């Protein structure tokens, strides 16, 4: 089962200062933090803030290539969590079929922001993160517990 998520914001990890995309369940309260690289975080932040760049960025180029080939980004899915690394897919609707492409979650999210595409997370990923949060083993669980307790106002204090 897939859960639709919204992109709440991008924040720095309070311990490592690395960018973290904060996804929140569309019709619920669960939160999923996903660490991304600095460059990917910048690409996501620019789109969240609606900053126009003088030349197309990589994700803008990808959007144009997909559209030029007659495709449309249908959805992105954070589909797996292995050894604290998230995996994602991008579903592209072509005229004659749907093509599923393996992607880093940061790239999938950056593309979703540019195309207005919905973001989903597999329930198994959410359950895996919950188990980590309950045992205190993984950074994902640690940050998830902290984020779930923050209001939008409190979260707004953490800027990239």
Detailed description of the structure:
It is a single chain. The protein is of the alpha+beta class and 160 residues long. It has a single domain, classed as Bifunctional nuclease domain. 38% of the residues lie in helices and 34% in strands. The chain is built from six helices and seven strands. Helix 1 (38-48) runs parallel beside helix 3 (105-115) and helix 2 (58-68) crosses helix 3 (105-115). The longest helix is centred in the C-terminal third of the chain and has 13 residues, at 123-135.
Task: Summarize the topology.
Layout: E1 2-12, E2 19-25, E3 31-35, H1 38-48, H2 58-68, E4 72-82, E5 85-93, E6 98-103, H3 105-115, E7 118-122, H4 123-135, H5 139-148, H6 152-155
Parallel strand pairs: 4-7
Antiparallel strand pairs: 1-2, 1-7, 2-3, 4-5, 5-6
Structural class: alpha+beta
Number of domains: 1
Let me know the average pLDDT.
87
CATH class descriptor: Alpha Beta
Distance between the termini: 32 Å
Instruction: Return the CATH topology.
Output: Bifunctional nuclease domain
Principal-axes geometry comes out as globular
Strand content: 25-35%
CATH architecture: Roll
Largest sheet: 7 strands, mixed
The arrangement of helices and strands along the chain is EEEHHEEEHEHHH
Number of strands: 7
Short précis:
With 160 residues, this protein is an alpha+beta fold. It has helices spanning 38-48, 58-68, 105-115, 123-135, 139-148, 152-155; strands at 2-12, 19-25, 31-35, 72-82, 85-93, 98-103, 118-122.
Structural key phrases:
alpha+beta; 160 residues; Bifunctional nuclease domain
